[in-house]
Each structure stands twice: as structure tokens, then as C-alpha cells.
């Protein structure tokens, strides 16, 4: 075994090479799937436009860059675990760092459950390329064929002789090599790390307090800001009296501010102080007069009344149409025409919004819990008239995101204040700010019409009325919401000959935004509840009925597994079982919920079974945790909390009225993962949509009561 002893000579030799590094990344000229692997050491002087994911220094230390945000969903583990597998290093022996915002990484938006499914193939190839370059470097040093060498545990080993070289001793030579164009990837059966329940590297950091969240950032001379924002987004600041606020010890500045929310500037007044406490006290003492003229001040009841009137009178913009739905509805032997209603929701992340910004003459630097650093760069560059390359965005850990922290408003506000006062600023939102300001998940109403013939669906007509996020982002208003069918399995469309899915345009002044699983979170409730109602009208078992309308082998296997693990075919009288199956972000999740009557009244949830088909996946524990978390979030949205409006303002301000599920509310949850050779799908969001319809379908099975409006109380069913 040639292990190169650590002599004084070798120590001096290695310490003198610590600046030498093998650094590999992906050049992304257009789309990630077109990526080219590049050795930065060999091309740095040529000005290659790329960034590195893998760095190995002369001591053999491996540093892996996570180009996406970590908000609990597991990218801090998934990206390194993918790279460590083909690189042949142990996950617990590598350092992980967050990338700064930079388009050279491709899209950095952590949303749409896209981190693994959007990059895993390139990352596998990248790490295999690094491994092969190290093997080639060792083969060249030993004057042996590369085919006689292999990599293992951060070393290259020569099979015939047993010679062994640490990666650190090879990087100087490997950095001079041209990356091979083609590398052979492992078969899944040969994985040592991928597919295994490895411990998450961020867990110790989060339990011992060393993980850096947005609020942990401090800078010399930093001040703190709290902002009194107009409770109606489109309102303006008419005037303000800061006399009492300026008397609060520590308050330094009081100023009118703005932040861009889509194409509208939300106005407010900022209190800037030498501590967060002083800023908050100054905010309480501030008196503001708002100008809220020129737009409607709606109540919740009026919003849903308008939605449902529109569903009764308008056909909407067609997203998908096949066959002749009108004729099939007219001829159907059995017909249904029902309306479902889903509420507005707050994101209510455990960590409220915050951002630290420092506007300087030659650059802007930002630190915070940010889901989309590249989007923030674009936005700040445009709004502050600063070259994009001078906008530096540093990601921290996020205490939850759910889409809210992929928005650009709160970083803009922080930069605006920093420029105004000439100092680095940390802006902290209170829970009340976070809950009432939005943007919110849109509340949506659905009209579902269907007909049966010979026990199967002969017509299926779905119309959705809710605010279109695309319209807020500038999409043409004569085009339907392209997420109107999100959550609805494609195999349904293959089996239902007469189908219509349409978007009935609907607008309010309330700001809306993505929320975990986006429109699938509301669509799934309506569509899978309606399928269940049709199954009942057809007098068929709900599982059997879905099987008949989902002619896809992969889905059929998933339903087999769902029936097996839930004991669907051995249900007993007096037990309520409901099921639902939804698809979003290239993954399908089926769920069964079991309920029973609560001795104290209402019903209780006894058990939840979920079967996830996400194709290729990294860590089964992460998959299960994400599905469990999605179910808990879905439980709250279905049975406990909603955002309501009065006079155009959010009524619910904090957890005393916008109540979260407690640990005692959570039933036993079992999660199962389908194994197959399909491409990777999303994990962080697809587990949510199926829960609400599975729950309400179970309640119908137990009580005969159909629930078509969310949220509802389990205690009063």
C-alpha cells in the first residue's frame, strides 16, 4: 500500500500546494440539460463563464456548493449526497457551502420541487467526471492504465499493486487535464449513498445553534428597521406623525419607504433604530394616515359570492377540451353539478420574513432567507439602477419558505432603507406583518359537472374561479391560468372522452402568491372530491372507480400499494375510509385517511397512509419527512386556519386566530415510496394536495356528509 507517509518534506510540499485545486462546474449556455462540464483550473485564464460545484484542495478536502436554498426540504443534503456518490467520498467528510446568487448556476429558484429533478443528471455526470480525472491523474503518476484503477473513499487505488493515493495528492495533476466528454455512471443497484437514509448534515448545525439564519447576520454599524406598511397593498401614505416614535430611546430615523410587489409599490413608514426592540417600540408609537382610495375594499363573503356567480354565468377560458362535453352532459343517465370552495391562506413560516442589506456606492450586498437569489439580483439591479454583477445575494438557512421567500419585495425594502439611511440595515417583520401583508395563497371556487354512462364517467366539466398568479406577473389576461389542471392526473384525461377544464377569470386587490404545491393544493380538493362523488353515484368502490379511469401501469401499481398498506380491502363497518390521488411537479401521491366518531363529538383522524411515486430519489428519510410535513400543513389548511378579509384588510393577525395544528392533532402517518427507474420528480410539495380530499371522502364514508367548503371543524362534523 503506497499511502505516502506524512514526513516533514511531504508536509512542506503539500502545505505549499494549498492554493492548488481541482475545481469543476457546469457551463450553462441556455438550459441546464445542455450543460457542459468545465475544469476551472484549466480555463480560468480564458474567462470561462461558469461556477463550480466541486472543489478539492491539495489536502484532499472536498467542498460542495449547494446552489439552492435550504428551508427544511433537504437540498443541503440532497445536492452533496448526489455529488458524493459518484465522486466516491463520504457525505460526512465534505464541507457544504451555499452559492451566492449567480445565473452561472442556472436557475437558483428553490420552488416547484425542482432542486433534485432539475439538476440531478448533470450533478451525477459532474461528480463522475471529477472522479475520472482523479483516476487519470493517478494512472499518469504511476504510468499504469486508468482502467486498472478505481476510486474509493477519497482515494484512487491501483487494483494490481494496491497502490493508493489520496485525492489531495492528485489535484495538481488532475487540474491540468481536460474533462472527459463521456463518463459511465453507476447503476442504481451499485449506489452506496444515494437511496440510503443518511443523516442530514444540517441537523447538528440546527440543534447546536451554529446554523446561520437570516436574523443571525450582523455587520459593523448595522441598524435595525421595523416598518408600518399599509394594510391594503394598493393604499398610499397620506401623512404620518413621528413625534412619539422619535422619543423612543435608540430610534435614529423615521422615513417613508416602498417595496415593489409585482407592478405595485406597497408604501409604509420605517422606524430605524439601534436595536430591533427599539424599532418595534417606535413603530407602535407611530401614527399614520393612509390614502386607500381608488380600489375596492372587499370582504371575504363578497369574494366568494362573486366567484360563484361567475361560475354559474360564464364558461371561462378553455385550458383543455376533448370530445363534446355539452352533448355528453345532456345525455348522461346520472348527472352531478356541485361547487367547492377553498380559502385564502398565509404562508406563516416558522421564521418570519427578514433581510439584511448594505447599499454602497459601488455595490449592493444582501443576506437573508431567500429562495430565489438570482431573481433578487435581477429585481434589485433594475429597481436600484445597479449593475447586476454588483448585486451580491448571500443565502442563509431558511426557517420555512413555502414560496413566500421566493418573492423579491422584502429584499427590495431592505435595500431601499439602507440606501436612504446610508448604513447596513436589518429589516425584521413581526408575525402580524407576516400574516396580514401577504401575498396569500388565493382562495378559489370550483364548479364541477359530470355525467355517468354504464358506470363510468361520460362527461367531466371543471371550471375554476380564483386569482391568477400569472396575471399579477404580466401574463396576457385573455389566456387561461395554465395551472387550472394542476393536480389532475394525466391518465384521467386519457380515459375520459368528453372533458373540459376552464379558467373563469377573477380578480381582487388582494395580493396572491405561490403556496406549497401552488394550485394543486386547491385543485386537488375539488377534483378528487368530485371523482369520489361520481364513484358514489356509480355505486362503485372509490378505489375501483379510480382504477377504471387511470389506465396507466405505474399508477395501477401505486394503487395496489396504497390498498395493501392501508388495508383498504379489509375495511370494517363503522370505520370511515377515504382516498385521493394527485399529481404535481412530476410526482404522484396517493393517500388513504381513516376516521372514526369521536366520543366527545365530531370525528377524529385515526391514521393516514401515503404512497409517493417520485421516480429516482436521493434519501428516503427526506422523502418521508417532506410528505409528513405536507400532510400536517394540509391538515391545518383543511380544518383549522384561513385568511379572512374585512373592508379590504386581513382580519387574522397571529396564531391566536390563525391557529396551527398542535402535536396532539397529528395522527399516525405512514409513508411508502415506490421504487422504479423513472426520472426524478418533486418531493417537497406533491404530498400536500391529496390529503384534504382523502379526509373529506373518509368523513363522507363514515357519516354520509359531504364537505365541499374548506376549512371545516372536525369537532362539528
Side-by-side strand order of the widest sheet: 11-12-9-19-16-17-18
Q: The CATH topology of the largest domain is what?
A: Aldehyde Oxidoreductase, domain 4
Which secondary-structure class do the elements indicate? alpha+beta
- The CATH architecture category of the largest domain equals 2-Layer Sandwich
The level 1 CATH classification of the largest domain is: Alpha Beta
What's the overall geometry? globular
**Main beta-sheet annotation:** 7 strands, mixed
How much helix is in the residues? 25-40%
The CATH superfamily label of the largest domain reads: Aldehyde oxidase/xanthine dehydrogenase, molybdopterin binding domain
Total helical segments: 20
Q: What is the beta-strand fraction?
A: 25-35%
What Rg do the Cα atoms give? 28 Å
**On the 0-100 scale, what is the average pLDDT?**
93
Pfam family, one: MoCoBD_1
Domain Aldehyde oxidase/xanthine dehydrogenase a/b hammerhead: 208-294
GO molecular function: oxidoreductase activity
Protein name: Xanthine dehydrogenase family protein molybdopterin-binding subunit
